[in-house]
Amino acid sequence: MKKSSFGIKDTFVTGFAIFAMFLGAGNLIFPPHIGINAGNMFMTAMLGFLFTGIAMPMLGVVASAKTGGDMLDFSQIVSKKFGLIFTSLVLICIGPLLAIPRTGATTYEIGVVPIFGELNWGELWGIPISRIVVSALYFLLNAILIMRPSSVVDIIGKYFTPVLLTLLIVLIVKGIVNPIGVPGEPTVANPFALGFREGYQTMDALGSFATAYVAIQSIKSRVKDESEMKKATYMSTIVAAIGLTIVYGGFVYLGATGSIRFKDIARTDATIKIVEAIGSNMGKILLAVSMSFACITTSVGLSTVFVDGFHTISGGKLSKKFLLVFVSVLSFILSVFGVNQIIKLAVPILSTLYPSGLVLIILNLFRGKIKRSVYRGGVYGALVMGVLYGIEAINPNLAIIQNFLYKLPLGSSGFAWIITALIGIAIGYFINKD
To answer: Which one of 205, 267, 399, 411 is least enclosed by Cβ atoms within 10 Å?
Structure first.
């Protein structure tokens, strides 16, 4: 029998689970990188990251609650064809192409190497055999856990996340009380844009409807009606947002204090070295263990969403067994190339999709109050610029694209899509055909 209410304990359990699922895709590697490059302008950079890395993902969960957690309905408001294509692309990105492989790569680089070293077992096709073995074991475990995902939210929220959050807060407080240095001069011209674009790399806004799907299914097992489900989702989202703000903000600051000491360093190395400088070798080990568990729980959640999503989209023609094998094998193959290579692959893809995703989130907050033509105008207006920014990311020296973008308002900062989205919304409002 379903519970008639969703209590405070349930709110915190689900909120902690949402927090862990967002954090666990290897996202802790981005805040220190932002802080190191922003230096004494870390607060400005943090504002940009807060928008795309926290605010929009949380609003995405809220917007998803308005559609009942239905992944297709979230984007099919534009059109059925757009919804199928956009949802499929997002599922692939947060699934076996980018996010899931990054959890495996992050587990090796932050969870294994800091404790056991590089494990010099030789190479295969230029890839360390140790990385291949660890990734194979990781995705074998991932496949086993996908078969029993029903209690993932409760397990993460009740037992794992409180420990992870406590550990991270201890490291942050220690880094504030005894900073490893003072913030230096920024190495980027626009720290806000740096933070904003690094928020793209978390993939959390794009994946928010997927995380919402997992959380909402858990909530629906406890509550009776839709209004109670929405309220429970909103309250749990607030808990997750507070946790992410504390952790992300704290690690941006820690990165800023190491901006002089840790210049020109890879994202995963930056996180490890900063934690080691603050918390000694034991802090590094605890972070490694915690992040490994966070990554596998997130991977299980995203894999489940991918399997369920494409099983539904295909009308059952793609079996869950086939999709499970597909997501596990492809994720394994891509994970062995490492975090930095996955990030490089992600830049043009996310530059293309993110603007439309952000517009969809904002417009879905007003679901039922605006016409479909407004959705179409805003989403397609953002998509046009997204495609151009994606092309620029593939070839930054393509002068014809760059010159066009940089002449537009906000174009040089990467935000020209805001203008075209607003123009599209205005056109859709006045056309107002449906």
So the answer is: 399
What integer is the mean pLDDT of 380-387? 93
DSSP 255-322: HHHTTTTT-S--HHHHHHHHHHHHHHHHHHHHHHHHHHHHHHHHHHHHHHHHHHHHHHHTTT-S-HHH
Q: What is the per-residue pLDDT for 2?
A: 46
Which residue, 331, 329, 309, is CA-closest to 320? 309
What 3-state class would DSSP assign to 237?
Answer: helix
The mean-pLDDT minimum among 135-149, 333-347, 359-373, 380-394 falls in 135-149
In DSSP terms, which residues pair with 124 in a beta bridge? Answer: 127
Pairwise CA distance, residues 313 & 43, whole Å: 42
Q: pLDDT tens digits for 250-303? A: 999 999 998 888 877 877 788 888 888 887 777 778 778 777 877 887 888 788
What is the maximal distance between C-alpha atoms in the chain?
65
Distance CA 188, CA 191 (A): 6
Per the structure block, which two tokens stand in for 201?
């790399």
Confidence (pLDDT) at 36: 92
Tokens of 200: 């793209």
Distances (CA, A) of 190 to 203, 224, 317, 393, 421: 21, 48, 48, 17, 22
For 340-359, the pLDDT digits (tens) are 888 888 888 988 998 999 99
Q: Indicate the SS3 state at residue 26.
A: coil
